Amino acid sequence: MALLKILHYPDPRLRTIAKPVEHFDDELVKLVADMAETMYDAVGIGLAATQVNVHKQVIVMDLSEDRSDLKVFINPVIQKASDQHVAHQEGCLSVPGVFDEVQRPDLIHVKAQELNGKTFELEAQGLLAVCLQHEMDHLNGKVFVDYLSRLKQGRIKTKLQKAEKLATADSVPPLY
Ligand code: NI
Fold it and tell me: What is the pLDDT of residues 58-69, one digit of tens each?
């Protein structure tokens, strides 16, 4: 297993549209294992392949308190969504340090595939529904920041670009 590098907003690669997975092979198993390790290491509850610059429709998630319930969604599709929207505070491993409210359908019906290719369906509500929609947005090149006002988007961009610059400066080896 290996830790993968997480892309940070406003990296344009986060805008890439992910392609459906066609081969349920060892390469996919390795990708999911690496994504899970990366998500746990970053203390996130969900991660989409887009965020690690792999443009395939793959999501990993763990909403449990003790981090023992890894969920994998391959090629997920929302089949039905409730008219009723609810607001949740969201954050994202690709937008570190930023949290804001997003309105999304409260209840969704999702169809997806398991790691072995088997199709399953589920009804999701609450945090699971929020997280699934957030991660599926990533696969469509969308970030939760896109739902915020232009003003907020501008502030977040500036803040993260500054942070990125500092991080790059820190990693420069000492000069002699
Ligand atoms: Ni995210």
Answer: 999 999 999 999
Give 174 Cα–ligand 1 centroid separation in angstroms.
Answer: 34
- Answer whether residue 173 shows pLDDT above 70: no
CA of 144 to the centre of ligand 1 (A): 7
- Give 100 Cα–ligand 1 centroid separation in angstroms: 12
pTM value is: 0.94
Ligand 1 centroid – CA 176 distance (Å) = 40
d(CA 30, CA 24): 11
Of the candidates 111, 14, 6, 11, the residue with the CA atom closest to the CA atom of residue 55: 14
What distance in Å separates the CA atoms of residue 25 and residue 119, rounded to the nearest whole number?
Answer: 16
Share of the chain residues as helix, strand and coil, in percent rounded to the nearest 5: 35, 25, 40
Active site residues: 135
Q: What are the tens digits of pLDDT across the range 13-65? A: 999 999 999 999 999 999 999 999 999 999 999 999 999 999 999 999 999 99
Residue type, 45: I
Q: Are 59 and 47 in contact (CB under 8 A)?
A: yes
Rg (CA), the chain: 17
Predicted confidence at residue 7, as pLDDT, reads 98
